[in-house]
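Morning F.,

Quick status update on the modeling queue. The single chain you submitted on Monday has been processed. Sequence for confirmation:
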Amino acid sequence: MIEEGMTRPIIIDTDPGIDDAVAILLALGSPGLDVEALVAVAGNAPLPITERNARALLELAERGDLPVFAGRDRPLRRPPTDAIAAHGKGGLGALHLPPPAVPVRPGGVDLLVRSVREAPPRTMTWCALGPLTNIAAAFVEAPEIAANLRELVIMGGATRRPGNVTPAAEFNIHVDPHAAAIVFESGAPITLVPLEVTRQLVNTRPRLARLRGIGNRAGEAVSTLLRPVPPSRRAMTLHDPCVIAWLIAPELFRGSRVNVAIETESRLTAGMSVTDWRGVTGRPANALVLETVDAPGFYDLLTERLARLP
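Structure tokens below.
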């Protein structure tokens, strides 16, 4: 776990999104992480909604000093799609936040490039919580920055089991598989958090009650975000907060270094994360793919860090 007094600079590329919102708050409640900016991307909702939600979440946490940059509003080569059916028209389920006062800034991709070029080599970490469109665009613009990242942590992919939007693909990768292919071929130091890990984090009633019992604005907001709507709907799982939890407490996770390739051509399997667990392709490992998470430890961490916020 990151010790008190140590800080790690990060930029969060995000499409808030219910679970993105929880991830952002978890990061803001973690003193060991120095969140330098949020960059919005189209994904769970169109870009005007995701950038607005990013700004509103910062104000909820009394961090309106942090900038939010607008990134790409559509995939590189495919038509736009979204997950409004899962996240609600406003993107944050049952949580309704006031319109943010801080304006959005243009140039999200340029900001990503500058963040690496202006930092000492291998010190900047990017957290990718949505489709990889902005990340890929940054690597196309400046290929040399990939090797100078400290780490690129991605929530995405289904590596052993079916996807969540097609039998083969997870949402973030499926939305923009061409971007994902660029990223996994970039040479960046990648840690991948796939569905096989995030599906281990089920928001049971006792866990939601514990979050609500924190007694602050952030805890109430997260318990509202994660409340099934309608109540008969099955309990949600937490996807994107795993990215932040990995940075704070990697001891909660186990994984293996393997090769991951992204299918872009097939009509049936576009967006599939082809993971070479047995090394049969001979392709070198290009990602640390997480496989398990200590669920009780994760929820302990989430509760403790949210309690640090207003």
